Amino acid sequence: MGEKNSKNRSENPLRNPSSTPEVGHYPNRPPLLALDLGERTGWAGVAAEWPADHFLFSGVQHFPLYRGESVGMRFIRFKSWLNEMIERGKPAVIVYESAIAFHASMYAAQIAHGMAAILQVVATERKVELMTATPGEVKRAATGKGNAPKPVMLAAAREQFPAVKIIDDNHADALFLLRYAMVVLGGRR
After folding, report:
1. How many other CB atoms sit within 10 Å of the CB of residue 21?
2. Do 112 and 38 meet the contact criterion of CB atoms below 8 Å apart?
3. Among 17, 35, 63, 143, which residue is least crowded by beta carbons within 10 Å?
4. Sign of CA dihedral 34, 55, 20, 124
């Protein structure tokens, strides 16, 4: 019985640290969109057949709640913005940081988890494939250390993307998520 349970745990895709589309599925470099989900969502994207480190668009989108608004308004604005980004960039794959069990606050966790759920629904409706990466995978790819703090990630982003004006840590994370996806899906550094 113990063997059966351990086998089931290892086959459960929800227990995998990240989900990655099959590399062979994309013989050419597909258009990509990377999202660092949160109240201040970092984003970065490239068009099809991208060269290494050629980011066509990137930035940060703020999704605040205004006085008197329902909590759901943030998510309605996020869904509208996400649909617009998909329409503009036509990504074949969207990569995002998998929601983690803990955040700096319950508030941040609620936002990230809510946005991840909306992203999954919109991607399914729009037939866009999703790819996740754990924060540790992204930090390790960016700095060599899976537990790099925000100041180290910002410094690494400024060094590795000198042509991009890094807005904040969310922007930096989105750029590194995009690069991570480019490498995993057959791109170059």
Report:
1. 17
2. yes
3. 17
4. positive
Angle at 77 between CA 151 and CA 179, to 5 degrees: 40
Q: How far does Cα 107 stand from its chain's mean position?
A: 19
Band of pLDDT at residue 163, cut at 50, 70 and 90: confident
Residue 26 or 38, more confident: 38
CA angle 112, 50, 17 (to 5 degrees): 35
113's tokens: 């988890």
| Size of the chain in residues | 189
pLDDT the model gives residue 54: 58
Alpha carbon distance 68, 71 (integer Å): 9
Read off the DSSP letter of residue 162: T
Asked if the model's pLDDT at residue 20 lies above 60, the reply is no
CATH topology (fold) of 27-184: Nucleotidyltransferase; domain 5 (3.30.420)
The predicted-structure confidence for 73-117, as pLDDT tens digits, reads as follows 999 999 999 999 999 889 999 999 986 655 567 888 889 999 999
Strands 93-97 and 32-36, bridge-based pairing: parallel
- How far is the C-alpha of 137 from the C-alpha of 132, rounded, in Å? 10
- Domain spans of the chain, in order of start: 27-184
